Amino acid sequence: MGTAPRRSSVSPSRAQSRRSLSVRAAKTENGPTIAIAGVTGAVGQEFLRVITERKFPYSNIKMLASARSAGRQYEFEGETYTVEELTEDSFKGVDIALFSAGGSISKKYAAVASAAGATVVDNSSAFRMTEGVPLVIPEVNPEAMAGYRAGGGGIIANPNCSTIIALVAVAPLHRLAGVKRMVVSTYQAASGAGQAAMEELELQTREVLDGKPVTQNIFPFQYAFNVFSHNSPMTDNGYNEEEMKMVKETHKILGTSDIRVTATCIRVPVMRAHAESINLEFERDISEEEALRALAAAPGIQVADDRAANWFPTPLSVSHLDDVFVGRVRRDYSRDDARGLNLWVCGDQVKKGAALNAIQIAELLL
Questions:
Q1: Could you say which DSSP state residue 27 is in?
Q2: Sheet of strand 228-229: strand arrangement
Q3: Which residues pair with 36 in a beta bridge?
Q4: How much is the pLDDT for 354?
Q5: What are φ and ψ of residue 226, in 5° steps?
Q6: Where is this region: Disordered (predicted)?
């Protein structure tokens, strides 16, 4: 297969271990004031870890949540913070507001935060398809948020986790050979449905192994040892909302509706990190070697494609890691030409699919 790189420098054992957090504080007098709406949730907590890992500069952090969580205390970078109730008065003096409290909360408070001067990075679906609101993956379309700055107001939308993970891998190939059609099948972890879903998967696994009836509070199906269609609502065309998000968001992020996109989104009993099987049709011939070189050179990607060892990315091996991992890069042999490729892509849903992407957006605001 030529000299194109095929294997990531991250070994399976290293990839399975959690990245250690830096002990160096990012707090600085010259940094922006940050508010985190939904700090008690899985993504809210990941915001804090990513801020530490990337040494994101800040002068103060306001931790916001519902009235039920107000008063809870967190130790962060050597200081004790008390969670405040999220209200319309929460954003005075805030430069960057990171939202991950659900779409209804974003719809209620994001405009309030923006009017108070905070630049909002919203992790919900509330504004993704709103005209004039940038939908940004920093490795793919940072130009979409040109002119935005910390403390300048405005809303920037964080894409759906599955879309982020897919397009980090697809965008370099689109720039290389022009994608005409994308067929995606996703294998989505419990983390995408929140901390309660992760806890229920763990509980059900124990119950099944112990021969007990399973507890079903989050999904209408047994999750442990099972797979089922993504739990988002069905639409009139037979696709669920998660699948249609991938279609619409891909068009907005890549700046064209000419790419034909179809998706099938499935929940699998994996705790954290999504996997995706992607089939691409291109405008011109593209070889496996070309594709591998483009992927290896692209930011935010690690190639893990060792055919001889049958070693490719897995959700477990990429959990808690920053990059999107790509493997199983191969010609589509159902075609008579060289304009089709298959990819296998894995990425941490909580991290790159949510918190990290939002913090990277925030970094571009500084």
A1: B
A2: 228-229, 260-267, 179-188, 274-282, 340-347, 324-331, 301-303
A3: 63, 98
A4: 97
A5: -150, 160
A6: 1-24
In this structure, the dihedral spanned by the alpha carbons of residues 20, 25, 27 and 28, taken in order and rounded to 10 degrees, is -130
Whole-angstrom distance, CA of residue 362 vs CA of residue 96: 7
What domains lie within the chain, and their CATH numbers? 18-158+355-364 (3.40.50.720), 162-352 (3.30.360.10)
Q: Are the CB atoms for 59 and 31 separated by under 8 Å?
A: yes
**Beta carbons of 21 and 49 less than 8 angstroms apart:** yes
Q: Using CA atoms, how far apart are residues 94 and 87, in angstroms rounded to an integer?
A: 13
Q: Which residues are paired to 265 by β-bridges?
A: 186
Q: What is the pLDDT of residues 2-13, one digit of tens each?
A: 334 444 444 433
Q: What is residue 10's predicted lDDT score, i.e. its pLDDT? A: 41
Considering only CA atoms, which of 356, 198, 206, 341 is closest in space to residue 282?
A: 341
- Is 305 in contact with 326 (CB distance < 8 Å)? yes
Element (H, E) at 185: strand 179-188
Among candidates 125, 123, 264, 267, which has minimal Cα distance to 187? 267
Quick: pLDDT tens for 304-336.
999 999 999 999 999 999 999 999 999 999 999
Whether 24 contacts 331, CB under 8 Å: no
pLDDT band at 26 (very low <50, low <70, confident <90, very high): confident
Percent of the chain with pLDDT over 70: 93
The beta strand positions in 304-363, using DSSP E, are: 324-331, 340-347
**Average confidence (pLDDT) over 119-143:** 98
Closest C-alpha to 249, from 334, 157, 356, 314 = 157
Reported as a single tens digit per residue, the pLDDT across 176-188 is 999 999 999 999 9
Q: Which DSSP symbol is given to 355?
A: I
CA atoms within 13 A on the CB side of 229: 11
